[in-house]
Amino acid sequence: MESVIHNLKSLILSHHPLIVIDTVEEDRVDDLLTSLSSDTLWSYFDWSLASGLRHRTLGNVLVQPNRVTEALIRLEDLTVPSLFWFRDFSEELSNNPLTARQLVELLQSFQKSPDPRAMVLTGSNLKLPPALESYATYVPLELPTEKEIEKIVVHTVSGLKRRMNFDIQITNQQKDDLVRSLKGLTANQARQKLTYAIVEDHRLCPEDIRKLTHQKAAALRDGGLLEYCSLDDNEFRLGGFENLKDWLRKAEVGFSPEAKAMNLRPPRGIMMVGVQGCGKSLAAKAIARQWQLPLLKLDAGRLFDKYVGESEKNLRKALRLAESLSPCVLWMDEVEKGFSTGSGDSADGGTGKRLLGTFLTWMQENSKQVFLVGTANDLDALPPEFLRKGRFDETFFVDLPNQSEREVIFEIHLELKNQKLTDFSIMDLVAASKGFSGAEIEQAVISSLYESLYKKTPLTTESILKELHNTVPLSVSRAEDIARLRNYAQERFVPVTLRQVPVA
């Protein structure tokens, strides 16, 4: 919060007359402006349709509600150093050209005034008339930090203790887990969910931490941009990929205090390209599990909006949310679909290029511990900027599984379906699945299980072999595409296996 207050103070002292904060957290804005007013001794006023224009320190009403024109005239008469917080105002500006013009002239007087004066506008999805855009400075209000969340937890628990009796059954270590379970929520959401967890059963216990984590995941899904996968839900197993696993073990030291002492930045991320269904998505989940970090999946398709500028705004919102949940793994699946720029701007009005520019800027400037995992299937559609050396820490190529990897994949999926490995001839299955992807092997096991359940017979090696023989894998149906992909990747990308082993 201190950095935001410092930023606001610097903007106002440098005669930025209009500051726009896109947020619905009015309590936090009020805390910011109250602290700024107290620090600078500037007068602090606010306006809303319900309350009119008020002097926040003295509490008196200067202009009655609904008298917008009168309120703006009164602001021009107040020539002392002042902060003016206006809520419920963007719709009035959009629908009333006279009000917008009146505000332009007021802002011009602010700029000419020797005393610092500025208007702060807040709301959700604020849209200003073009005449006001040149005066506006947008200031992001980040979600609460862990330190702020910790204060919210302390205040909420102590406040409830004064009103009701309840048991606190969490340790100091679990208190840190509780704070992390609320990170990524607004201050109000954190207070509400913590309060509900306590009043529901009159206790605060480790089970509440798990519930709060799942509630946060649901809140992120409702937002539509990010999908949250907690450590408790991430139990995916990954066969093969030994080269990638070895790289991850070494890269993990980049998060250590020793690396920080040497001014080494944490690893930024990796790119994985390769054949469909060969484990790129599973690898993203395995990275989060190996490093014991929450996993966020960004659905690039949901970024697009029909209004100009909204897609980039959606992307910035998603990235800010990821930063607020750091340290974490941010997984972008099939990045070519979200940032494909094509041969021109006609297809999407240039949205793809603007999204790409916004994202590349974030990759360059991001200082939070957000480890990015990008996956792609189509190299032709992938922007070349993504493959430039240095953009990611490493780019890996995921090929069809070799013989030893297919053996592990069969064992994983048979065990997951509660089958005894000793009942099957694994090596016969491995030999019959030459050229199959991991996803195709999994589907062969599943389809065979459906067949055995229908016939009320046990699953056998022969039934899986029959399913494999009836399947045309991608390595056959798209042989030319896969050959071209391999030829391109051979000298450019690092294989995820320890050595390049031909598909047996």
Query: What proportion strand?
Result: 5-15%
What's the shape?
Answer: elongated
CATH class type of the largest domain: Alpha Beta
Q: Describe the main β-sheet briefly.
A: 7 strands, mixed
CATH superfamily of the largest domain: P-loop containing nucleotide triphosphate hydrolases
CATH fold-level topology of the largest domain: Rossmann fold
Q: What's the architecture of the largest domain in CATH terms?
A: 3-Layer(aba) Sandwich
The structure class reads alpha/beta
Q: What is the strand arrangement across the widest sheet?
A: 4-3-2-5-6-1-7
Alpha-carbon Rg, integer: 28 Å
Uncertain stretches: 500-504
Overall pLDDT:
86
Instruction: State the distance separating the first and last CA atoms.
Output: 58 Å
Percent of residues in helices:
40-55%
Give the strand tally: 16
Oligomer: single chain
**What number of structural domains do the residues give?**
4
Q: Tally the helices.
A: 23
Report on this model:
This protein has 23 helices and 16 strands. By secondary structure, the chain is α/β, with parallel strands linked by helices. It has four domains: 2-138, Rossmann fold (3-Layer(aba) Sandwich); 146-223, Helicase, Ruva Protein, domain 3 (Orthogonal Bundle), CATH 1.10.8; 242-398, P-loop containing nucleotide triphosphate hydrolases (Rossmann fold), CATH 3.40.50.300; 403-476, Helicase, Ruva Protein, domain 3. The strands form three sheets. The protein has a seven-stranded mixed beta sheet with strand order 4-3-2-5-6-1-7, sandwiched between helices. A seven-stranded mixed beta sheet has the order 10-12-13-14-11-15-16. The chain has a two-stranded parallel ribbon with strand order 8-9. Helix 14 (310-324) links the parallel strand 12 and strand 13. Helix 7 packs across helix 8 (172-182) and helix 8 (172-182) packs parallel to helix 10 (206-223). The longest helix has 18 residues, at 146-163. Residues 500-504 have low confidence and may be disordered.
